[in-house]
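TEACHING EXERCISE
Course module: macromolecular assemblies
Task: Read the component lines below, then compare them to the predicted structure of the full complex.
Student: A.B.
Group: 4
Components provided:
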Amino acid sequence: MLQKELQGHQWKAFERHPMYGRNMAVKIFMFLVFGMIAVYLLMFGFILSDLLLEVGAYSRGIDSFNYLLLYIFLADFLLKYMFKQSQTMQIVPYLALPVKRFRLFNFLLTKEFSNVWNLYLLLMLLPFVIKSVIPYYGAISTILYMLYIYLSCIGNSLLVNISNNLFRRNGWFLFLPVIVVAIIAGITFIPGLDVCDYAVRWGEWILEKNLLAWGAVLLVFGLFWYINLSMMREELYRALQGKKISEGGTFFRLSFLERLGSAGEFINLELKMIARSKRLKQQAFFGLFFVVYYFLMIDSEVFKLTYFFPLFFTMFVVGWVGLIMAQYMFTAESSFFDGLMTRNVSLLSMIKAKYLLYVSCSVVLLLLLMSLVYLGKLDFLFLVSVFFYTNGFLLFLMFQNAVYNKTYFSHAESGLFNWKGTSGNMMMVTMIAMFIPLGIVMIIKGVFSAAIAYYFMLIVGLGFVLTANLWLGWTYKRFLKRKYINMDGFRSDA
Amino acid sequence: MIQIKDLKKQFGDKIAANIPELTIEEGSLIGLVGNNGAGKTTLFRLILDLLKADSGYVLNRGLDVSKSEYWKTYTGSFLDNRFLIDFLTPEEYFYFVGKTYNMTKEMVDERLAMFSRFMNDEILGQKKYIRNFSSGNKQKIGIMAAMMIRPQLLILDEPFNFLDPSSQLEIRDMIQKMNKEENVTVLISSHNLAYTTDICSRVILLEKGVIINDLANSLEAVANLNSYFVKQAVATD
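Instructor-supplied answer key:
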């Protein structure tokens, strides 16, 4: 009865989430994104067996998959560790009611069964098992194998909860997952110890319905469940108290920026905002992930297959700070915008400070990427032209679009799949800002040559960088014309 | 100090402000009272140019607040938590605000020392972000930031809200002191009739965005206000 009631509340919370009250463009965009991810996972699952047969070390796709499973779960763990939110606070409204806490904790844990974080792998696995497992082991073993993956995903989530809980108790526990990851990665290099071979055998046991293997899976799962339950009470007190996480850490202050006057003040403020906002921090991490990915992918043949990927990724890597953060201009300040507008500060200084910060970060990334030019992996002209095109033309488009930002932005919320504070217009124009310039360059390259496309980017980009003062002022004037509408939006969406 | 002429603001069908004329003299201490939804905060937002008036204007020392921003250099205000930068610590926030008014850290520290009793050792040195303070302490931070800059016009919306009785007395005295000793023009809104009538030289009663009474503070005025709110309560019953 209670369980049903609580589930009903969860559904209402989902259905009535402010995100769904947004305009049609956002809804369409959201469904497109989710749809694309789902289709992508299904398609990937479909080609996975062929891919594993081609590149895998085993004659059967399922063996190669089992071989990789350890690393897949490792990646899954890291992803959840960084993005999964604590759900303990969801039960706060029920605490004063005559409901046993144990039942509430159990309810929270059972939610893991329907959590999208634990289902996404199954989507990929479905076409794969139909092609690669059924022919060898039959339907029942295949269903059991899916169940094993499902339980492992949930087990991974429970493990993440435990790690997070320990970390909140003591900061040193942050190193625990790092050590675990290092050990798993390190094991691979121990001579004579083929961990992956064990993983293949383990997978076979699961598929062959080995009782010991299944018993071990259920035992570990039960253990994680029990530890979670026993930790939840303390976790709840900690979340209610909200003190430990709230302690203001010390943050460096870039004193040399003080020489820049109010622009320097705003840069310091922006840096603090990124460092202390859960959402912006996650977005920044996402950008950094791309930088690392870029360095790993630069030699890959897939990367060079089309002209689009190098251009798109280089643009993103060079300008990720600006391209990500400019989307949230004004709206990131929405929670204190009234204060800002009544102080003796100029918004123009803030806009200029943001641009200065984004370009400075881009310069650092440019210098980093120069190492690839030195190694002969990137073309110098290409890199420089992308740098100017991104910091000139792309940021110009982003800044102009930002004046339409009029939604409340919560710094405390998670950033992943969170469109609150992101207007439909902003999304559309961000896409346009990213892809139209790319399209133009690709057309020029197709009609003329790569060099002409690079020079086009360089000249256009340079033009916008040199006239930045002018169009930043224009952004400011355009924002002032809309300020009442925008400020009203910042207030009403809270 | 402030002149309002034909000021109108409507949200849909609801009139939030409709003030044909209002003048607030330099150095006065004005209290705005009225029930919820009377339009007190809307009026403050219009004075601070946080809302666009449908018609009319607000002049702050002769400057139209929607056209010039110079008034910000001498106006301190705190309406709600939206004035606070909640990912900063109180110290960082005070220094940031101080800097925008060309105050050095030393000047900010010196000024904050005046509020030490009001802070009650609960604000500075806590190593906490503003977002993690209690509502009362957030209120204190906002009020202090507004007062710290040595404003010539001070606008506070419900300054006694969320505060403990000692802090309410403290803030009441500080407002009065700033008004008397520094000749600061003060505009406050409050549901606390006792404090408002205690310190304000003039009390403006708002109802549905309209000024229905503008009283110089006197025993008679206090009686008038009391009878108004009693009537309102009876009417609601």
